[in-house]
From TrEMBL:
Pfam families: FtsL. InterPro entries: Cell_div_FtsL. Part of a complex composed of FtsB, FtsL and FtsQ. One of its GO terms (biological process) is FtsZ-dependent cytokinesis. This is Cell division protein FtsL.
Length: 85
């Protein structure tokens, strides 16, 4: 009778351990999924920033802003001095 009670207790502890490990596994999986969704969002944002950077750094745009805001002009060819290295 004592052996049967001990086996029943071990069986119950084993069942509770299985339930706990399954629950823990699911919670970790949910956490991983949440981080993967955040990573996907960061990758989209990174792509948008790369596109914005390439747009902002275009030569035509930089030149237009230099002319408008800073009132810069291209010097005449004869006033340009080339220095050889």
């Amino acid at each position: 009778m004592v052996v049967l009670a001990a086996l029943l207790a071990v069986l119950m502890m084993s069942a509770l351990a299985v339930i706990y490990s399954k629950n823990y596994s699911r919670s970790i999986f949910i956490e991983i999924e949440r981080h993967e969704r955040a990573l996907d969002q960061y990758e989209v944002e990174w792509g948008q920033m790369q596109l914005e950077l390439s747009t902002l750094a275009e030569q035509n745009r930089v030149e237009a802003i230099a002319k408008q805001r800073l009132k810069l002009v291209i010097p005449p060819r004869e006033s340009i001095i080339y220095i050889k290295p």
